[in-house]
């Protein structure tokens, strides 16, 4: 079944409204960002330009500046109030260049970035192939894409509780790890690696979970969402349904965290073939000095 598309305008408004209090609520997002950044310890590269794709309030910007002191770090997000806060992260000397744009249509030149880091953003994309194609386009040959996103078991308790209340979509869809890997292959990234881990947050009340989701801007933004207000009867039914998941006095909220990385091939593919530098092309019978041993 094709998942319902994300209403980007509604999603943007939700993140704009959440910007002021985002850092207080985004405990899980910070933890995942730290784990993603730790994976850079195993990557040998000295990028000249780094793109934080879907940067939010810019939690990863200072660690990226410390790790890559000679690199220019670019912060990109589609919610302008988030970028206002991200801009303050670098201090006066290393303020990031900020771009307000959708990750599915990047306002960057071809081959202008060495490293793309993206934390908990891809689940808001309607077209993974287009998103990865854009990443491939702006990355230089042998550049690296590293990301996290959420898999389909994320918020499974909340999804199950709502399904017993009505037939609307109340929880945004999340891509499967294998679908992400397939999309990387289709868009001609090299050596994609995917893995997953499962984390659980617990709450005393479902109202606390809903407050956290609102606090990070993770509101229902699907086209199949209910358009009216949720009345007290439906909320009571939701609470009763969620109570069936209570364990040891707490309500669980499951998160399936997907990690992925992939490289850009040395010869970047183009439509209909592979891009080959003009310097590598010779006339019939001609020998290239330094490649075939010509003098």
Overall description:
There is one protein chain. With 295 residues, the protein is of the alpha/beta class. It has a domain at 8-153 and 172-200 and 255-280: Rossmann fold, CATH 3.40.50.150. The chain has ten helices and nine strands. The longest helix is centred in the first third of the chain and has 12 residues, at 27-38.
Give a short synopsis of this structure.
The chain is α/β, with parallel strands linked by helices and 295 residues long.
Question: What separation lies between the terminal Cα atoms?
Answer: 61 Å
User: What helical percentage do the residues reach?
Assistant: 25-40%
Task: Point out poorly predicted stretches.
Answer: 272-295
Q: Write down the CATH class of the domain at 8-153 and 172-200 and 255-280.
A: Alpha Beta
Beta fraction of the residues? 15-25%
Radius of gyration: 22 Å
């Amino acid at each position: 079944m094709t998942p319902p598309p994300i209403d980007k305008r509604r999603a943007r408004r939700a993140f704009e409204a959440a910007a002021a209090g985002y850092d207080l609520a985004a405990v899980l997002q910070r933890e995942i960002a730290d784990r993603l950044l730790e994976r850079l310890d195993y990557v040998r590269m000295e990028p000249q330009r780094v793109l934080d794709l879907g940067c939010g309030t810019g939690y990863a910007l200072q660690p990226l500046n410390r790790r890559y002191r000679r690199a220019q770090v670019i912060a990109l997000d589609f919610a302008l109030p988030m970028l206002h806060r991200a801009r303050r992260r670098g201090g006066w000397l290393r303020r990031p260049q900020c771009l307000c744009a959708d990750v599915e249509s990047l306002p960057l030149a071809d081959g202008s970035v060495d490293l793309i880091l993206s934390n908990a953003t891809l689940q808001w994309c309607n077209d993974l192939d287009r998103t990865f194609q854009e990443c491939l386009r702006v990355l230089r040959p042998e550049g690296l894409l590293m990301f996290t996103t959420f898999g389909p078991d994320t918020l499974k308790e909340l999804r199950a509780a709502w399904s017993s209340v009505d037939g609307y979509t109340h929880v945004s869809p999340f891509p499967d790890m294998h679908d992400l890997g397939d999309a990387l292959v289709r868009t001609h990234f090299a050596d994609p690696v995917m893995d997953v881990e499962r984390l659980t947050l617990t709450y005393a009340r479902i109202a606390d979970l809903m407050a956290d989701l609102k606090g990070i801007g993770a509101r229902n933004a699907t086209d199949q969402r209910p358009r009216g207000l949720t009345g007290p009867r439906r909320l009571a039914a939701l609470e009763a349904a969620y109570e069936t998941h209570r364990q040891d006095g707490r309500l669980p909220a499951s998160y399936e965290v997907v990690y992925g990385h992939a490289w850009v091939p040395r010869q970047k593919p183009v439509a209909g073939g592979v891009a080959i530098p003009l310097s590598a092309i010779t006339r019939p019978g001609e020998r290239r000095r330094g490649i075939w041993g010509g003098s």
